[in-house]
Input
Amino acid sequence: MTAELAPCGPPTQLSPPRKRASRASDVRLPLDRAPLVANTERLFELLPIAVAGMSASEIDVARLISTSAVPALSLAVVENGAISRVVAAGVRNATTREPVTEHTIFEAASLSKPVVAYAVLQLVDAGVPSLDEPLARHVPDYIPDDPRAATITVRHVLAHMTGLPNWRSDQRPLRTYFTPGEHFSYSGEGFVYLQRVVERIAGEPLDGVVSRLVFAPLGMRDSSFVWQNRFDANYAAPHDDALHPGAKFKPGAANVAYSLQTTAADYARFLQAVLAGVRLEAKTARLWLTPQVNPPQGRYESLEAEVPDRDPAVAWGLGWGLEPELGTFFHWGWNVGANAFAFGSPTRETALVLLTNGDYGTEIVPEIVAAIFPGHRPSLAWLGYEPEGAP
Output
């Protein structure tokens, strides 16, 4: 296995996202945490907050980032199939205090996966690979001494039914833990296996495939699965929960599961394609957002052999999480120090993407989603984003 396609995420990539139990005002903090919250509030009193594209009456962006341990966010909204608003608020780096702009590069983390799914489905429409053929036909012995692994298909990967762990470890080596197709268990490893297959079929690295099938035709000029030198001038540094900036993850080679670097405006262009189903055959566009499996209640990874209790209000399609009864799709992303979230409704032709550069970017998600998609959201409940007692 090459270094470029290391199957385990780097130390800066984990899943699922982190979330504080509640706001500082809602809970009695341990003594060692109280000064951190106070310092965070004082820091944001000093930080310049520039907001462009959305009025405070719609979403109080400045308040959201000042009450969460998030130095900055970038938000784009698609309405009636068109990008209606792009917001840039906060700072790229809490130490240097450089403001973000609409062109600031953020880490998309696992929002990488739906983009790759879109490219793969275009290959499926072209005939190779087929949705239900084993990946082992193209890359045999990727997982040796595991006969069940030879049955893993494109569908299994996109719907997280491979039986593989999210990331291999000493405690969980790379192998199938249940029969592929049996039930849901979120897996970055499955996507890395698919990356190998795509690169073998296309005869080029993943970033080239995605650039040709997604970035170029959709006009996503500020997006790449590998770091571009031009990004050095304007990127959002990751931050921990104490708002200390960390080293920027600058991928030297693509990883299908988490290495996408992008802007909110660029990702919104991708969401426009999702809403319209462009560049896909009509049946494939429908299948992309058709439920394939229900995940377990309140868990993203479930490697036990027995089928867990499933959440009937949440499902997974071919690369997207779904709220089947509501006709909506979603995905989250978390690299350490960076959080992302996307949500959309093809019926309403409306979608949003939120990119942040803090460990607790998830705290901003519910209010922003509610402003554009009001009502109870099963996806947020499943992810644990909604506060306890939420309707």
Observations:
- Strands lie at 72-79, 82-90, 106-107, 261-262, 315-316, 321-323, 328-335, 338-345, 350-356.
- Confidence is low (pLDDT under 50) at residues 1-57.
